[in-house]
Amino acid sequence: MGRLLIVSNRLPVSTKVEHGKLSVVPSAGGLATGLKGPHEESGGLWIGWPGDTSRLDKGQIEGLERELLDLRAVPCYLSPGEVRAYYDGVSNGFLWPLFHYLLDKIPYSTSEWDAYRQVNERFATLTANHYRPGDTVWVHDYQLALVPSLLREMIPEARIGFFLHIPFPATEVFRIFPWREELLLGLLGADLVGFHTLSYARHFGNSLIHILGLTPDVDRVRSGGRTVRFGAYPMGIDFITFDRLARTESVRAEVARLRYENQDLRLLLGVDRLDYTKGIPRRLLSIERLLQKHPELRGRVRLIQVAVPSREHVDEYESFTSEVNGLVGRINGAFGTATSTPVHYLHQSVSQKDLLALYAATDVMLVTPLRDGMNLVAKEFVAARTDEDGVLVLSEFAGAAAEMAGALLVNPYNVDAIADATRVALLLPEQERRARMRAMRQRIEQFDVHRWARTFLGDLRQENDPGSREAGVRMDREVRSQLLERVARAHEVLLLLDYDGTLTPYTRRPDLASPDKDLLDLLASLSGSARARVHIISGRSRGTLESWLGQLPIGLHAEHGLWSRPVGGEWALCRPVDASWKQKVLEILGLCVERTPGSMIEEKSFSLAWHYRMCDPEFAEWQARELKLHLTHALSNVPVAVLSGDKVVEVQPHGVNKGLVAAALCGAHPGALAIAAGDDETDEHLFAALPEGAISIHVGSRASRAHHNIRDTVAMRRFLMALASSL
Ligand code: GDG
To answer: Global pTM?
Structure first.
């Protein structure tokens, strides 16, 4: 297995200069711990920004690089201007609040997107320079959303994963982002895109539908001729280490000290970066409310709030800091006494030992972010509770809520609800506290950060398209001339062409897709050759094909081959069929039209189609899936097949498909070079029925069993024009 190249905004190190000497200290964040194993064991590299190096001299930079090399870390240097624009501006100034649904925090405008793109390019180029065939690349987080596609352009065959550590918001919020298409396309450069929860993955899928017009299939989507998978990979923590450290003598001594110093008090704890997403002001207000509503608790509870300074360069954080300071002062002023204060506020970071002791000593842990991708603090608290005691009050808007069945869930916007939940937590009987904590500890132990990394990397290293239905060989100039040479040598050419999506683009209504003059001329020119036999095999009705193409000397095959009209002949049914099921299906489709504005039924002689091209894409895809399930169930005893095409669900007699016509035609012209082209699922039957040596062409970028792949109807027509000249 190749090396693992990790790409993240920050390298997992911090640098310090003391007496002119620089030292590099590895930092022990959750990500670094989880990825340490795969990174080191694979002899991999970690690519990221080493922090501000603008004040380092040449010697210090050299020293830094030597130390980083030992840690298998590659620095991506950024100028202070770039940090301001890409990191403080777009990433933390715009994407961060938007993805956390805090719309009032997004700036009126930003001109920094170019800087974001450029820095992403820098990361991608640096990664490409270090890439060796067989390596796996894992890109992290919202600062580097464009890296997957930029890297894909540089190394098309690379295996690339992306993980988003923050929420992916609902489409209605995501679509606010001015560069939403570019960002989505950036992510789609990856083979696997991971999120903390299923609902973020679902939001991402919905944005692909609404913003890019793609049609994801549960956990995968075709884009740019490739399959991209996406799914939920909830990140865990290093449970064993937290559990072990919590049992050490020094932590236990610190716990005893904390308990002794707060002996008459019940302790509440909050630990967060000082960030407006973490819900600190409302948490403070809930303490105020608790003390107002329950005077008996005054002087009996204390909230210790650790607020680690964070992103102090971003404007929004400055006013936020003073807001928090003001609230702490107000509550302590109102409810403090000469000897005690209800809020013990630490605007600083604490050592890991002290953090563990705080987790272990507290009665109630308050984790009430307004939105949080996951929230590891909640999990660390649980891991530190080797005594199986303590209660977790957890925001329902933290990703962790999906996993922590033993927590008391609260709406973090509802100050009263937090106050009430805190009181419930304080009153919870010991037995219940233990039962809840035990359940959570089991979960967190089992799904730790190592398992998270293993699962993601395991999935990333799996093939995205097992089996043969990959994208075919792209029809570039060279492939095209090879095919045309074969055509020139063939004594007879059998052209089997689908109509919609192959010869003409889809239109909003199916009746608007009539052939233009160029297409009629093209078909006339192809069929004018003595060596060529042209057939259109379509899902359309006889009437439509006759009126649009009836004047041409070509074979026409309607309703997926149920009806055929040979050149110069009459329409004939390929075999007797039963249509008694139609009424029942018409009723079901009628209900579907009622429920799905913009959709319509197309009635043909022996088949029915429900078209939904003009509908709200997300809702209609969902309806289509429901409809197929329902029809398959309702028609289980009826000899019909339910097919899905491009924005259409069709019901037609069983055993009739384009493959039957194709097989019959190929059989009637032995030795002819068959060339088949089509764009949707119904054309797969056509491709499957072709004899050895035939040329099959899929129009579009979906997976197909066709050998060749052409971009769109324009490129297809161009190919047919060249073909007409070689005939
Ligand atoms: C992002 C997402 C997602 C905090 N104070 C101290 C301290 N910490 C450590 C905690 C914890 C980490 O910082 C914070 O992690 P969170 O997960 O809570 O939040 P973010 O920093 O916002 O992280 C988040 C995460 O990425 C991972 O994907 O869960 O949703 O926003 O590990 O322990 N550590 C020490 N002293 C402190 O004072 N030593």
So the answer is: 0.74
